UniProtKB/TrEMBL annotation:
Signal peptide: none
InterPro entries, per database record: Endo/exonu/phosph_ase_sf, Endo/exonuclease/phosphatase
Protein's recorded name: Endonuclease/exonuclease/phosphatase family protein
Chain ranges passing through the membrane: 55-76
Domain Endonuclease/exonuclease/phosphatase, residue spans: 7-221
Phylogenetic classification of the source organism: Bacteria, Bacillati, Actinomycetota, Actinomycetes, Streptosporangiales
Length: 232
């Protein structure tokens, strides 16, 4: 049995208090972190690696056009990584999926990071596309999947309902705290989540024990961290 802490966090393009952001990511104590609005375009890889190093992590997957990435702790071994742009919708931002198959002790896991659109039609399409692509990548390894992301809608809406129907909404399965993630200064909505394959046991899922000032200053979202167990 392997216990892992997996997080998801929207960084708002590092436009806020980066030292506070580093402290929050470090406080997550996560073995794997799914990032959204990570550094993009020219130099994205070097900037993601630099941020990861400041948090004691390393970059294992990224999609630079879409600003999604996966970070991992040093002890987690990378087996395979892919990144994909999702279907392009005319007039909307490019959306992508960063994916990695990792080995944590004896267990394999496929983890993906996605940032869904503000447009409802694109959001629902990309939710289904992300789940399908992540499963397709994981299948040759027999790895269960975890998808983390900024869903940009609440749990009662279609894309979230789709994700929670295909996978387990970690917070709904084992809630810790109120679960609200947006905005960081006045959290009223749960729009960021982690979704795990049914065979993964969710021990707990919720926020991060960091200072209120750091959480409010780091970015406009709050992070989500789930503790899960594999191989039970």
């Amino acid at each position: 049995m392997t216990t892992l802490r997996i997080g998801t966090y929207n960084l708002r393009g590092l436009r806020d208090d980066v030292p506070a952001l580093v402290r929050v990511i470090s406080a997550m104590g996560a073995d794997l972190v799914c990032l959204q609005e990570a550094p993009r375009l020219a130099g994205w890889r070097a900037r993601c690696r630099a941020l990861a190093a400041r948090c004691g992590l390393r970059l294992v997957a990224g999609q630079g056009v879409a600003g999604v990435a996966v970070l991992a702790a040093p002890w987690v071994r990378l087996v395979h990584a892919e990144s994909r742009l999702l279907r392009v919708f005319l007039g909307l931002e490019p959306r992508g999926l960063a994916m990695a198959v990792v080995r944590a002790g004896p267990a394999l896991l496929a983890v993906g990071s996605v940032h869904l659109d503000l447009d409802g039609r694109a959001r629902l399409h990309h939710a289904a596309e992300a789940v399908a692509r992540l499963r397709r990548m994981a299948a040759p390894y027999g790895a269960p999947v975890v998808l983390g992301g900024d869903v940009n809608e609440s749990p009662h809406q279609p894309a979230w309902r789709y994700l929670a129907g295909q996978l387990t909404d970690c917070y709904a399965a084992a809630p810790r705290g109120d679960g609200l993630t947006f905005s960081s200064r006045r959290p009223l909505h749960r729009i960021d989540g982690l979704f795990a394959a049914p065979g993964i046991r969710v021990v707990s899922c919720g926020g991060v024990d960091a200072s209120g000032a750091d959480l409010a200053g780091a970015t406009d979202h709050l992070p989500v961290v789930a503790e899960v167990r594999l191989g039970e």
